[in-house]
Amino acid sequence: MTLDTVTTKWKTDMLLVSDNPSGQNVFIDASPESGGHNEGLRPKALMLSSLAGCSGLDVASLLKKMKVEFDTFEIIVEAELTEEHPKYYHKVHVNYHFYGNNLAEGKINKAVKLSVDKYCGVMEMFRQFATVTTQNHFHNQ
């Protein structure tokens, strides 16, 4: 069993710093309206970054193994919060955008599907509390 541990420390006002098992730090802060100074990422949005990052690492690895050529890709996550407290994401849509010449759409679709359905643990976590949908977009240049 793998156990990940992070330590998050208060710095000042609403600013926190959190470590990561990789040794890197991330700053977490609130908006000025909530007493923060916009000096870090917002906690809920950081969850969306984790979702995109998890799936993005899967897709990059799978496309490399499949020898699929592309110029770049980006993942845009749109999420809707509930109205009542505690507010949480109940609808999440993940858009995968691929850019390149003569994109191998079939292989790219397969790589994304493997990430979404099999490999991305963060995606599975989100499914426990949200409706998650995905869509692939191809931008042949």
UniProtKB/TrEMBL annotation:
The lineage of its organism: Bacteria, Pseudomonadati, Bacteroidota, Flavobacteriia, Flavobacteriales. This is Putative redox protein. InterPro entries: KH_dom-like_a/b, OsmC/Ohr_fam, OsmC/Ohrsf. Pfam families: OsmC.
